Amino acid sequence: MERFPAPAAPAVANAARRGLYPESEPTVSGWLAVGGGHEVYYEQCGRVGGKPAVVLHGGPGGAINPTMRRFFDPTRWRTTLFDQRGCGKSRPNASLDDNTTWALIEDIERLRVHAGVEKWTVFGGSWGSTLALAYAITHPERVEALVLRGIFLLTERELNWFYQDGASMLFPDAWERFLEPIPAEEHGDLMAAYHRRLTHADRRIQARAAAAWSQWEGDTISIRGPEARPAKFNEVDFAVAFARIECHYFVNRGFFPEDGWILNNVHKIKDIPGWIVQGRFDVVTPLESAWRLKAAWPKAQFEIVWDAGHASTEPGIVDGLVRATEAAFSV
User: Fold this and answer.
1) What does the pLDDT average to over 179-184?
2) Which domains does the chain have, with CATH numbers?
3) Residues 185-234: tens digit of each pLDDT
4) Average pLDDT rounded to a whole number, residues 20-27
5) Helix/strand/coil (H, E, C) string of 300-321?
6) 182/175 Cα distance (integer angstroms)
7) Average pLDDT score over the chain
8) What are the tens digits of pLDDT across the range 45-74?
């Protein structure tokens, strides 16, 4: 398995690591009607006529932010970023109607056509890696390369690890807060218990469940501790949209026809170049999934960052992703 260029040892890596590109503003932004009553907010950044890429945010239920623009050299790339259905600035907010993985895949296609792009590099982390892989498997002819971080295959094993029994052993203090809104008699299926509350007609019940759901992810996202939790997790509107949509996807097992669908179909992208950057101490999406993916996809180049967890902003993850986008530019 070929490893893309990286500093040789941790002591050197800390000094030699690449940082994010300078901040930049979108050159184009707006909303695109995609059907089902949804309008997705999108931005285009970087050089007009540059190499095309699309950025897929995490969650499901997250949103784009200015930092996501900074993994690409704005003098060479033309990047499209968008808030997925119900997320961020997309309308209507927090809507679960006609909100599935397959709908999002076709939204990516609509954005590609809208941007006038034939093929593009697809960049995504966490749920963004899930969606990127599902999109590439469905439309391999439209994908030039994949740059992925924090691999999440959306399997029963991964969901049980994070929302039922596993990560709870590493973060018993945060897990206790996660359990707080749920009576003991419902602890046997926590995702279902949360789903009942996040889809409740009473906004106050939604908000309480959303705060606990979002805090659990925020408390485990980085080896730097809760202070690395994105500030948006503390905003009620963001937390409700994030938790509602994420739980909606997870109780429906990503809307995939079978458990393990991505690995079962990864042969369809075997000839697409890929870069995988994975934190060794990622608790949200543990290393096992990335390891299984790289074994099934020999063309992908693979890097384990030894001093990182799940967050895309941890220095080692930033370094790996920036080097990956530089390498992908030459594909």
Assistant:
1) 98
2) 10-155+255-329 (3.40.50.1820), 157-254 (no CATH)
3) 999 999 999 999 999 999 999 999 999 999 999 999 998 876 666 666 66
4) 96
5) EEEEEECCCCCCCCCHHHHHHH
6) 12
7) 94
8) 999 999 999 999 999 999 999 999 999 999
Contact (Cβ atoms closer than 8 angstroms) between residue 64 and residue 79: no
Sequence length of the chain is 331
Please choose, from the candidates 8, 16, 21, 10, the residue with its C-alpha nearest in 3D space to the C-alpha of residue 325. 21
How far is C-alpha 138 from the geometric centre of its chain's CA atoms?
Answer: 18
C-alpha 256/C-alpha 261 separation (Å) is: 6
Beta pairing class for 28-35 and 51-56: unpaired
Segment 70-97 mean pLDDT? 98
195: amino acid identity, one letter: H
Compute the distance between CA of residue 266 and CA of residue 138 in angstroms, rounded to an integer.
Answer: 10
Half-sphere exposure of 130 (CA within 13 A, CB side): 26
Give me the active site residues, please: 126, 282, 310
**Predicted local confidence at residue 265, as pLDDT:** 98
CB within 8 Å of 85: residues ≥ 6 apart: 34, 36, 38, 40, 95, 98, 99, 103, 104, 107, 245
State yes or no: pLDDT of 244 exceeds 90: yes
